[in-house]
Amino acid sequence: MRAALFLLPVAVGLCLLAGLAAGTVPLSPAEVWHGLWRANTSASVIVRDLRAPRVLLAFFVGGSLAVCGAALQAMIRNPLAEPYLLGLSGGAGLGAVIAIATRATGPWAVPVAAFLGALAAVALVYRLSLVAGRRLDPRVLLLSGVVVGTFAGALMSAIMVLSPAAGIRNAFLWLLGGFGSASWQSLGVFLAYAVVPLGVLGLSARSLDLLALGEEPAHHLGADVNRTRRIVYLCTALLTAASVATCGIIGFVGLVVPHAVRTVARPLHRSLLPLVFVVGGSFLVLSDVVARTVVRPLELPVGVITALVGVPLFALLLRRTLA
Amino acid sequence: MILEAEGLTVRYAATARPALDGVSCRVRASELVAVAGPNGSGKTTLVRALSGLVQPERGVVRVQARPLAEWGRSELARVLAVVPQREEIVFPLRVDEAVMLGRYARLGSLAAPGPVDRAAVRSALERCDADTLAARSIDSLSGGEWQRVRLARALAQEPAVLVLDEPTASLDVRHEMELLELIRRLVDQGLAGLVITHELNLAARYADRILLLSEGRVVAEGPPREVLVETTLSRVFEWPVAVTTWCDGSPQVVPLRPGERLS
């Protein structure tokens, strides 16, 4: 465990370094180092202006999505929960597309629209799963999430095909998920939306431990179940919206990363959430490296990579946990 | 009076028959009250109402003479510990971690567990004869061990009242007796205890009073020999029973086969 605590920052550092070094113009670690600290060289333009914000954005988005997954999994007591499968991403994407189609663009308006979309999706998913019975059944909730996500996806496609708004064609590519347009500004926008919900989820770690036991034991051990649920829904909706608005829909990070971390770490959220954050961040940075190097000079959407890596990894984990 | 309910009426759906209909009960310190009754008589609903999980339509619950509504969530968990009937494990913790969850109501959201908390966990595990399990994963425990760990988690709350919903269901004779002996010992040390059970004969020997529920109403309440009466039980359980006396003086219930009669 001590060794792991030492190795983790090294591994994270290596991931970030790989993110700065890889790309259309490959750089050596030394070039990256000089580019970071010396201004006005060709390397410094690439490293400082293009890759540093991109790598940091990927790191924070990956960490946020993974934390969302971990929190949602604890809350609905189902390891399959994550923003993508619960329809949050779809709702956020729909909100963002509507904002673009109605020309309510700008770096701040799209996240707000995405947030409203994500909240609407949460409310709808919640409402749908209540129809089935008096008590909330996690399986019905997931099913409703998939249904709402698919419905939102269909609406998005329809709007994108029909809307005359300029920029809507780009929305298609953006929705697939990618960090191609990352800048210091988009990183700033993302952090402005993400810092508070991340902190609040961190402070809810103990309540999440209790909620993972189930509504009744959690209540008896002192958790305010309904308040914690509202907090988790709000925070994950905000984080998902900020992610979708800045870099599109990226699935499976929230599913695979908490799963993988739980196989090696204790499932108590005070330690689990920070771990999940850095591992999720590193995973998305590496996925982005693959996305922009594997078919150089073209770029694959990073959502494609996370799905291509995430699904087999998930199948493997599933087999191992069931065995 | 540590825990008392007055005229509790609970209805799950507006039109349905109330699950509890004007139920009152009291538990004092160093007293063990058993709640018995047929399936669907409202026993679990009583636990849910006493712990604030369902809101009664009428009536009031008081903990240490203060109405339940005035208690904060974690404040209440420091006084009232409830071990619900079933608990499914989704994310397996270690036994000591699971018992530490009992301390959360005292820890707040930031503070790390201190020596006091670790001592409380250790003592709770020892009292439940579960200290050797501390490093095991909770999904590797047997039914009896898991019940003992859940009881230890409740004791780690350092409560004044302990409420248990069918704690010995699915336990074999030895584990059932061990758990009841433990509960009786804790009550004798000053806890107030409320246990829901189907085991009338064990309730007769361990409980100070029995509350008999039927269709959401209290049918009888008092010391075991006053409650466990042939006519009452036969009517409530809709099955003929005979009541004899065990050598310690406690009434013992024997369900009769058709045509059988106690000589």
Question: How would you describe this protein?
Answer:
The complex is a heterodimer of chains A (323) and B (263). Chain A is mostly helical. Chain A has one domain (27-322): Orthogonal Bundle (ABC transporter involved in vitamin B12 uptake, BtuC), CATH 1.10.3470. Chain A has 14 helices and no strands. With 263 residues, chain B is of the alpha/beta class. In chain B, helix 5 packs across helix 6. The chains are: A mainly alpha (323), B alpha/beta (263). Chain A binds chain B through residues 74, 77-79, 134, 203-207, 209-210, 212-214, 216-217, 219-224, 262, 266-268, and chain B through 12, 51-53, 73-74, 76-78, 80-84, 87-88, 90-94, 97, 101-102, 104-105, 107-110, 153-154, 157.
Itemize the secondary structure elements and their pairings:
The complex is a heterodimer of chains A (323) and B (263).
Chain A: H1 2-21, H2 29-37, H3 42-76, H4 88-101, H5 109-131, H6 138-162, H7 168-175, H8 184-203, H9 205-211, H10 215-220, H11 225-247, H12 253-264, H13 269-293, H14 302-322
Helix pairs in contact in A: 1-3, 1-13, 2-3, 3-8, 3-9, 3-11, 3-12, 3-13, 4-5, 4-6, 4-11, 5-6, 5-11, 8-11, 12-13, 12-14, 13-14
Chain B: E1 3-10, E2 20-27, E3 32-36, H1 43-50, E4 58-63, E5 66-67, H2 73-77, E6 80-83, H3 95-100, H4 104-107, H5 115-127, H6 143-156, E7 161-165, H7 173-188, E8 192-196, H8 200-206, E9 209-214, E10 217-222, H9 224-227, H10 230-237, E11 241-245, E12 251-255
Parallel strand pairs in B: 3-8, 3-9, 6-7, 7-8
Antiparallel strand pairs in B: 1-2, 1-4, 4-5, 9-10, 11-12
Identify the notable features of this structure and list them briefly:
heterodimer, A: 323 residues, mainly alpha, ABC transporter involved in vitamin B12 uptake, BtuC, 14 helices, 77% helix, 0% strand, globular, B: 263 residues, alpha/beta, Rossmann fold, 2 domains, six-stranded mixed sheet, four-stranded antiparallel sheet, 32% helix
Structure in a nutshell:
The complex is a heterodimer of chains A (323) and B (263). With 323 residues, chain A is an all-alpha fold.
